[in-house]
Write a structure and sequence with these properties.
It is a single chain. With about 210 residues, the chain is mostly helical. It has two domains: about 1-50, Arc Repressor Mutant, subunit A (Orthogonal Bundle), CATH 1.10.10; about 55-209, Orthogonal Bundle (Tetracycline Repressor, domain 2). The protein has eleven helices and no strands. The chain has helices spanning about 5-25, 35-40, 55-80, 85-100, 100-105, 110-115, 120-145, 150-165, 165-170, 175-185, 195-205. The protein is globular. The termini are far apart.
Length: about 210
Amino acid sequence: MPKVTQEQANARRDEIVNACAKLYETTCFKDLTLKEIGKATSFTRTSIYNYFRTKEEIFLALLEREYDLWNEDLSAVLEENEHLTADAFAEKLARSLEKRGQLLKLMSMNHYDMESSSRIENLTQFKRSYGRSLRLVTRCAEKFLPAMTVREVQDFVYVFFPFMFGIYPYTYVTEKQREAMKNAKTDYVSLTIYELVFSCVRELLAKFA
């Protein structure tokens, strides 16, 4: 059997992650299987195990890629702006996440199961991308809001990142959920990702406006 080059291995890995991303648009995590992901690739299902041993590892790789894409936008905010007011920074952060619905959807999943079912090398690779997001948001706060102390920047980051885990459930509501809330006479205000993020960040940074 011919040896697979690193370039070919990377291409196959990307194809698996792409297949997972596509299927995840219409199939929930619980119902999505390695078998179904394998059917959506151009090579045999058993070949998947050369790259990922569990579906959780595939989802973790997809989440890593989403963080990398967000990191590109955060880097652009840093590089393209010399000064930003608190409101302007809130707007930039909200716009950067407005495009990352897949990231927010994945974040709303059970991270504990996803990470505990992945090998340490895969988890370490993911944590690099996640860690870069933390550093980039920190650098943005330090650059654009110099009046913030080190503790205030840290507090902002560690309030904002946990908040992100709840964005998707509050902005994407199914018809079944709407009907249940109506039956329960529970009020629901429909907000976009941009509106929810901008409102949150603006409130967190209100004293620096």
